[in-house]
Amino acid sequence: MDEADTAQGPEAMTDDAAAPRPSDDDEAPDYATAIYGSLLVTSLVAVQWRADPSVEAIGLSLFVSVLVFWLAHAWSRIINQRVRGPITVRHATAIAIAEGPLLVAAIPPALVLGLSRLPGASTDVVMAAALIVCIAQLFIWGIVVGRAAHTSWWLAIRVAIVDSLLGIVIVGLKVAVLH
């Protein structure tokens, strides 16, 4: 294998006309926390739907669970930094804020859960709508990934479909493990 073969490794996942990459001077955004938050919220909604028929209880559980996961993520990153040496309160706060997208991922499905207060709204319909919103979030993250890797919308949509399906598989595995 020569140098040209090894240099093309990461590009194997892109089409020939790949979207421009950020230069070394640009700091590319890190979407990992938001994507993880979307997977987490989708899993929580799916698991809670099976376990509790009360939309209010599911909404509260969603809020508390996501808050606890956010605290765990922020605290583990803060501790990781502190192992390397002292950090300021400002730095710790910046770390906690950087984990904020995990919290934000809960907002769209939580808003849908709030629809349960409307007259005639059934628990199953509201929960199904919340789950659809969660899966839509996964699809949107797939579009973001697809557009970063490909200039073609068709390829970006294919990536979004595959990423959504993989997200659904992950959620299904979490539901199976938890119940």
Characteristic terms for this protein:
179 residues, mainly alpha, 8 helices, 0% strand, globular
Structure description:
This protein is an all-alpha fold. It has one domain (31-178). Helix content is 72%, strand content 0%. It has 8 helices and no strands. Helix 2 (32-51) crosses helix 8 (153-178), helix 6 (107-113) packs antiparallel against helix 7 and helix 7 (123-149) packs across helix 8.
Oligomer: single chain
Instruction: Please describe the biggest sheet, giving its number of strands, its sense, and whether it closes into a barrel.
Output: none
Distance between the termini: 48 Å
As a percent range, the share of helical residues equals: over 70%
Stretches with pLDDT under 50, minimum 5 residues: 1-25
Strand content: under 5%
Tally of DSSP helical segments: 8
Instruction: List the secondary-structure elements in sequence, H or E.
Output: HHHHHHHH
What is the 3D shape?
globular
What structural category do the secondary elements indicate?
Answer: mainly alpha
Rg from alpha-carbon coordinates: 19 Å
Mean pLDDT: 79
Please give the number of β-strands.
0
Number of domains: 1
Structure summary:
This protein has 179 residues and is mostly helical.
